[in-house]
Amino acid sequence: MRFTISTRKIFLGVSSAALIGATPALADDHGKKMTTAELNKMSAMQSAPTDISGNSVLQPWTGPYDGVPAWDKIQVSDFPAAFQATMDKVKAEVVAIRDNPAPATFENFTLPMELAGNDANELFAIWGVHSSNLSNEEIRKIQGEWLPKVSAFFDALTLDPKLLEKTKTVYDNRETAGLDPQQLRLVERNYEQLVRNGALLEGADKEKLIALNTELSKAFNDFSNKVLADEETYIYLTDEADLAGLPASFVASIKAAAEAQGKPGWALKNTRSVMQPFLQNSTRRDLREKVYNAYINRGDNGGENDTNATIAKILKIRADRAKLLGFKTHAHYRMADTMAKDPDAAMELMMKVWPAAVARVKEEVADMQAVADAEGAGITIAPWDYRFYAEKVRKAKYDLDAAEIKPYFKLDNMVDAMFDAAGKLYGMTFTENTGSVPVFDPEVRTFEVKRGDKLVGLFYLDNYAREGKRSGAWMTTYRSQHDLGGKNRYVLASNNNNFVKGGDGQPTLISLDDASTLFHEFGHALHYLNYDITYPGLAGTPRDFVEYPSQVNENWLLTRYILDNYAKHADTGEPMPQALVDKINKSKTFNEGFSTVEYLSSAIVDMKLHNRETPVTDPDAFERETLAEIGMPKEIVMRHRLPQFNHLFSSDAYSAGYYSYLWSETMDADTWAAFEEAGSPWDAETAERFRSVILSTGNETDRAEAYREFRGRDPEVKYILKKRGFPVPGE
Question: N or C: which end of the chain has fewer CB within 10 A?
């Protein structure tokens, strides 16, 4: 879990994996620009002296790009003292602002609160890498002990009645204070979010909220550790017959995994990056079933790592908190500051897509069953067969084999491709550093980022799976852009993937799906690298918007330019032949039933789980009953079953929010239609309008209004149906 502390986060008192950024020069009530010296003086006056001598975590960031984390010098044992010292400093900063005897104004209250908490930002950037990329027993122990304390600290700070009083004073006087539109939006959002998160509570209710959030942080930590423990288990293969059907590159990687543990044979780690290619290629149905069951039952084995009781506890706390805060359900609480606004709006969109997706799955299963019958397999398609027989159908329908594609998707080439695409679209360049920037693992790469001649910042790329690294893929920032007082902060952005490194010195080859993930996460990075906003509190976007820029970026992967220039065979270096490019393009909507149902079932279950006043006490039963109710095909399992659904239960981040991928993809498909209407995926005018209206503006305006400014209207659902190859009603 990563804490991101800005003014907004201090106000909210929440822990979050959300990303922040900030801003151009600030004006006082008379329009006078504040100088850097004045801002620095204000910041210095806020800060209480803190003894950081000898603490590796709290050392100032030095070196290039106005300072970078000294990952190579961090001592994990220094984190507890760093947490305490940072909380003391943040409290001193906020109390100094709070206790200013002058009547609260934008200049003497809102502005300095925007400047508060930078030490906490840096601390939790470093902590986030250790807890997500470098986790071990010592880190997990510190996390279990300290994150509840940190949660309680920021809750208490948030709920300080004096802060509420000053925030309300600025809010009440906003119409006569001469604020510009951004300042007005900041003031309104600060007050509304403060109230939404319990600032109006008093006495026992306030103490109860702090207790609930503290218990919730403990439960999140418990859930994460249990899932991670199950993901760090292995299935070991010792007979070469067990490798039947597996590509040589994959065999080399799992052999290297076994050797790293001093084990004979081959090691299959219980993660998606191993499960997916195994199920897709292995001709051993018994082993496919074994690998599949180990993967889908993470957190659901009845042992010490079983998460069902933890989930029930989280759901109870969330329901109690929502009621305490005046919301009907946790879903209503979480969605109050989203584009959808209401659970019914999210469900309406999902149910527009669900029937077509289920219908397509029935067609896909029929095609697979026909292949199995023709081969005399004597089976009925089961979940562990889906990926395997889908590849057979792909080959039969499109003469396209995933094994034929993979040699053309060399990871290093795809990294170069995503950088080139950013250059063509936004004028950005990425130049690799050679040893001048500390990294937290020898395989992490760093790149200097420019847009034109302007230095933007630094991009960290952590591509490979390793022990202690959580599964999946994600983007984060260690430092976000702002321009307070005329000095721009350089962005430190990071992409984190879990690709299986090639073994025996072979290049790392990734699947088409993995390449899409690479472009997706890079889309998040491009969003934050293009920020040009004024206030940190107007940085992070609503949950159902934040996936939109990343999903748009996936579209450029399969453009002719990228395939022609970067999809080159790992052995021969020859570009992908046109015939294969044509096959890929023809098969773009292949298996979309599976992809949509796998994801959408998870999103629907999430919403139904949280859009209820009485919390679920038996997650397994609820999952089964809900899937039966919506007609879940028996041949598919949810992309994330509840017992391992980190998006929902390792933080609040995506709870009642997993629908956001579909909401964002609706905008994504509509945006791609804009490029198509312009006549080229590289249309300069459309790309610049997307960058300047969508990417660079953070949350400075309502995101629905921003989309309408970009597109000239609201997004249309028909484009996502077309993108997935589903029928469009009325067409």
Answer: C
